[in-house]
Amino acid sequence: MSKKRVLVVEDDAAIRQGIVDTLGFSDYEVLSADNGDDGMRMAVQGGYDLLLLDLVLPGHSGLEILAEVRTSRPTTPVIILSALGDERDRIKGLTLGADDYVVKPFSVKELMARIEAVLRRTPERPKDVAHVKIPGGMVDLQRGEVRFDGGETVDLSEREMELLRYLAGNRGRAIAREEILRRVWRLDPEHIETRTIDMHVARLREKLGDDTAQPHIIMTVRGKGYKFAPK
């Protein structure tokens, strides 16, 4: 089994080296950057399994890096490293899609426990999907197009692309509306009506040529949510 690789973006040399040493001792491969500009470049390039991201950095800020990662690499796990006084930025980071945060100063045991917990969340960590085969056609999620075998094309909105990417990345699994709100909308399901999910699914079904009365691509799972299981 190959080692997991972690990218550490942290400008404090002592903290960064401590994290690098701890991860190395725990049999992780480690990449690191000490500023926001290098961190942005390395984060967008990919080649790692989890990003540990400080918020206050020279050059690009941690929040700028997080926003870019969520656009270019939406399935990448991210843990924020945050000073105690940065509550507002931590909340913003979680809203932008960070999976967790660790408050400085933190213990080695706490950091490793949070890393392992995030990496274990495979049911909510979909595969990154670029193309999706559907009955009668194919969806190009890089271009945001549904291409039917007869030559017709239909454009998808950004939200529709993200929704389909998440559903297809979790093919065959029933996904709760609350999970979709957290992972696709990046919102707290306690503070928004989940009906918005149903409306977007209805529009997506229409664009995919799915039968809204008897859907065969995006299935409704009673009492749960939705499942991507094209027949």
Report on this model:
The protein is an alpha/beta fold. It folds into two domains: 5-124, Rossmann fold, CATH 3.40.50.2300; 131-228, Orthogonal Bundle (Arc Repressor Mutant, subunit A), CATH 1.10.10. Helices cover 40% and strands 22% of the residues. The protein is built from eight helices and twelve strands. The chain has helices spanning 13-25, 36-45, 62-72, 87-96, 108-120, 158-169, 177-185, 195-208; strands at residues 5-9, 29-33, 50-54, 78-83, 100-104, 131-134, 137-140, 145-148, 153-155, 175-176, 218-221, 225-228. The strands form three sheets. Strands 2-1-3-4-5 form a five-stranded parallel beta sheet, sandwiched between helices. Strand 1, helix 1 and strand 2 (29-33) form a beta-alpha-beta unit. Helix 2 packs parallel to helix 3. The model has no long low-confidence stretch (mean pLDDT 88).
What's a quick, concise take on this entry?
With 231 residues, this protein is of the alpha/beta class.
Secondary-structure content class: alpha/beta
Domains, number? 2
Calculate the mean pLDDT score and round it. 88
The CATH first-level class of the largest domain comes to Alpha Beta
Task: State the CATH superfamily name of the largest domain.
Answer: Response regulator
List keywords for this structure.
single chain; 231 residues; alpha/beta; Rossmann fold; Arc Repressor Mutant, subunit A; 2 domains; five-stranded parallel beta sheet; 8 helices
Summarize the helices and strands and which ones pair or pack:
Elements: E1 5-9, H1 13-25, E2 29-33, H2 36-45, E3 50-54, H3 62-72, E4 78-83, H4 87-96, E5 100-104, H5 108-120, E6 131-134, E7 137-140, E8 145-148, E9 153-155, H6 158-169, E10 175-176, H7 177-185, H8 195-208, E11 218-221, E12 225-228
Parallel strand pairs: 1-2, 1-3, 3-4, 4-5
Antiparallel strand pairs: 6-7, 7-8, 8-9, 10-12, 11-12
Helix pairs in contact: 2-3, 3-4, 6-7, 6-8
